[in-house]
Amino acid sequence: MTCDVLVVGAGVSGLAAAYGLVQRGHDVLVVERQVHIGGNAVSSRFDGFLMEHGPSTMNAAVPEGLEFVGKLGLDASAIELGRNVRRRYLLDKGRLHGIATHPFGFLVSDYLSPGARLSIMTEILRARRTDGAEETIHDFVSRRFGAEFAEKVMDPLAAGLFCGDASQLSVTAVFPKLVEFERKFGSITRAVLAAKCGSQPGRRLFSWPEGMTTLPRHLAQLLNGRIRTCTAVKKLRAMASGFETETVSGRIRSKAVILAVQPHVAADLLVGVAPDAAAAAGDIAAPPLAVVYLGYETDQVAHPLDGLGYLSTNSTDRLITGAQFCSTMFTGRAPQGHVSISAYIGGSRRSEAARLPDGELVPQVESELGSVLGITGTPVVRKVCRWPLGLPQYTLGHKKRVAAITNAHQHVPGLYLTGNYIDGVSVANCLRAARDTTTNVSSYLRQTQQVAQHFLGSKAQ
Q: What stretches of 372-438 adopt beta strand conformation (E)?
């Protein structure tokens, strides 16, 4: 079989790239080794509850993602965060702290000590760093805002966004805007004031009535007949006029290939094709993650659940990195008179905990949530989802690794990679990276077509 572009991987990144290329008139085929499409964007509905196995929101603050959703016509059916999302919660030393979502929330809350709050207010007076050395999130934030803010706010945030450790993650890779703010304005505070940032960034999040699986399912419908599931790729070969890809069901020839797979899969496929990119992809860790979803009757839970959920500071006596109040975030996530909560375990902090058997994991999660949220009795539903390989970790040196990966086409023309390890782990970031990949691949195909036409024209003369 032949096609213009073979896309390996039918997650959001692969489907979005394939759709973009089809819209530009290219012949595209998508192969996926799993039975289902969508990657980790999986939503399950049962007994009136809806569980997100992976991502749970779209971020409207990423314009490319919002634009893509609009072009698909999915903006009309999108649902906004529930009105009861009023506070952000952080768990420290067994106590849950509710902090207002307005810009001065941390300054008026007793969550941080007076000294830490003073350190935040005086950030504008600190000199910028000019040596350009890469820093971890923890080191950068400690330098700008103080160690307490780093440990009690940014460490939990890094765990919530990446299931990672702020002392290992690169601030340049994870929060490039913070680095740019310091470079350009000399102060994060000064930059925020200049930008006049909105007071409630959390309300930029949205989803759909049937969850995040709506996006890949819609893309799959638009790509009808162009997706082959249960089709694992065994080997990739670069040829003089493109690529030959060996799959479990036969060989496919294409002018270009997009690898939209997890970094460890990309590393295996690239070993004999693009060694530098293979080594870089292989260096990206993705520690395991477990999601424990619990449903309760409303009167079983003493806490008002008036937020997105809570994040926890790094503590060896806590199993849960963070939890989402699913039924508060969006309507239709639990039946009338019930609430639902998702707890996240594992990642860089407690990777071994994600491997605990259900018989050990679930009771510990129930006990921990019970003590934090004032829950009595047993849940009416329990579900566990496990990701043996979770979110990619943007550790120090990640930008260099990504450069080696995304520049693979310079050494092997027609070879492109995209995914959640390129430019952010959120769905919106994946859509942005897929859009860029679509543009690059389409440009490459046009150039090769022009060269071929020129050659044939010269030969005819």
A: 381-387, 415-417
